[in-house]
Amino acid sequence: MRGKRVLDLGCGDGRLALGVAALARTVEGLDPDPEGIAAARKRARDEGVGNARFEVGAAQSLPYKDGAFDVVISSWTL
Amino acid sequence: MVDALHEIHRVLAPGGLLVDARPDSRVLGHAEHVTAGGHRSVGTIRTARAELGNDRASDRAITRVKRERLFRSRRKGRFWHRVPFDGLAALQEYLREHLRFEHRVRWTAGTATRRRIKDDRFTIRRAVRYELLERVSGQT
User: Fold this and answer.
1) Closest partner residue to B4 among A5, A59, A66, by Cβ?
2) pTM of the model
3) Would the CB atoms of A78 and B1 count as touching at under 8 Å?
4) CA torsion sign, B110 to B27 to B54 to B21?
């Protein structure tokens, strides 16, 4: 994960994404649950993590450019 | 699920990795009593029927995108994941609310044993399968 651009699909409250953020260049978290995303954003603020962003969205239509990531994590998602 | 995998292929850079991890419903879960000597299984926990169907659909989707040469497997395997509980009541409450599992344990420990240990620590141990899939250049 070191220095990589990472997408955490189905990130929930961002626990995994924020753990990865310590190593990664950038982390994006995506989840269809707005409450989960709100919790992830709050957690990122509280922990002072500056390289992680969280969005509401679905895996079937990803709001990212082609080739935007080096690693996609699908944990309990597919 | 295939649509999602096509999208993942699109947003991954060439040679990028998809890390897929999910419960392995081919293997029974276990309710375990935590003792000084370790963890002792006191019952088994099956996956709910609907979730078995979802898991098979996920397997088929992964197989399809490998056949389409969008991804190739770099490594796969299984590890165990434990969820801790303070007492048997908490474990049973978790099962009642959790859609993934059948809502009850199939006990291998007898009623008297369970009554004696009910306030001890317990875990649910379940198998998790993982696969590292490398993006290859097939067309979506």
Assistant:
1) A59
2) 0.84
3) yes
4) positive
End-to-end CA distance of chain A: 21
Neighbours of A35 (CB within 10 A): 11
What is the C-alpha to C-alpha distance for residues B6 and B64, in angstroms, rounded to an integer? 11
> Which residue type occupies A49?
V
Structure-block tokens of residue A11: 């990130």
Q: Which of B18, B58, B129 to mutate to test the interface with A (most CBs of A within 10 A)?
A: B18
Query: pLDDT band at B138, cuts 50/70/90?
Result: low
**Residues A50, B35: Cα–Cα separation, whole Å:** 42
Chain B residues in contact with A64 (beta carbon < 8 A): 11
Q: How far is B43 from chain A (nearest CA, A)?
A: 24
Chains A, B: CB pairs < 8 Å: 70
Question: Could you report the predicted ipTM of this complex, rounded to two decimals?
Answer: 0.93
A66 to chain B: closest CA residue: B11
Packed helices B49-67 and B2-11: angle between N→C axes, nearest 10 degrees: 50
Domains and CATH numbers, chain A: 5-62+69-74 (3.40.50.150)
Whole-number pLDDT of residue B102: 82
Which residues in chain B have their CB less than 8 angstroms from residue A30's CB?
A: none
